[in-house]
Every structure is written in structure tokens, then in C-alpha cells.
Amino acid sequence: MATTPPAATKAPWHLWVVGVISLLWNLVGAFDFYMTQTRNAAYMQAFTPAQLDFFYGFPFWVVAAWGIATWGGALGSLLLLLRKGVAMPVFLVSFLGMVLTTIHNFGLSNGLKVMGGVGPLIFSTVIFVVGYLLFIYARALRRQGVLR
Fold this sequence. Notes:
Layout lengths: L12 H25 L3 H4 L4 H8 L3 H22 L5 H22 L2 H5 L2 H26 L5
């Protein structure tokens, strides 16, 4: 006798709001990563020579962590919209990429000075909070059976 799989829990309205807004948010980060890594002249002209040297001097592991953070966030948001349970670990890996990048930028190098004071530190804090909350949100939806 075959058993039928349990019915999926209906997606709450906020999943679509959070999913779309987070996808747009994370695509901005992915775009920034792409434009920086391709050294797009029009995009990079907004930065000082010292800032450009800072970005272009990142060691490979920082570039990899930054890429994982940005593109992982975008992928996590897409998976959230598709109601896939794997969104939760993807958001976690993205968050860990943020942690590694921030350790380098503000702990192992002079990123705070190069980027111009506390503004970038505040923005990094906002990015951290959003990334962590997306992980928590996906975990809650997964536990509720909304994400499969």
C-alpha cells in the first residue's frame, strides 16, 4: 500500500514579500561584487585610488568569501521564493562568507580607515543583521514545513 507524502504547508503572504525584497537586496550585493571583480571603469570611478587599491588587493580567500556571501545570498533568496528547504543552509553559508570578509576588511586590514570612517562599519552591520535574519527566517519556515 502506497503512502502519500504529507501536504505542503501553504506559503504565507510574507514569504513573497521577504523573498522578493531579499532577492533585490542580495542582487545589489552580487552586482557590486561582479562590477568590482571585473574592474568596471564606470562603476569603480566612484572610489578613491586608495579604495581601489584596497579592493584590488584582496587575497583570494577574501574574494572567494565575498563571492560566496553575495551570490549565496541571492541564491538563498531565489530558493526561498521557490520554497526550497536548502535556502536555510545556503543563507548560513552566505552569512559565514560575510563573517570572513568582515574579519579581513575591518580586523586584518585597514578597511575602516580606507573606506572613510564608521559609515561603512554601520552599513556592514546592517548587512550582517539582514543576512542573519534571512537565515533565521528560512529556518523558521523550514521547521513549519513551508520550505520543502
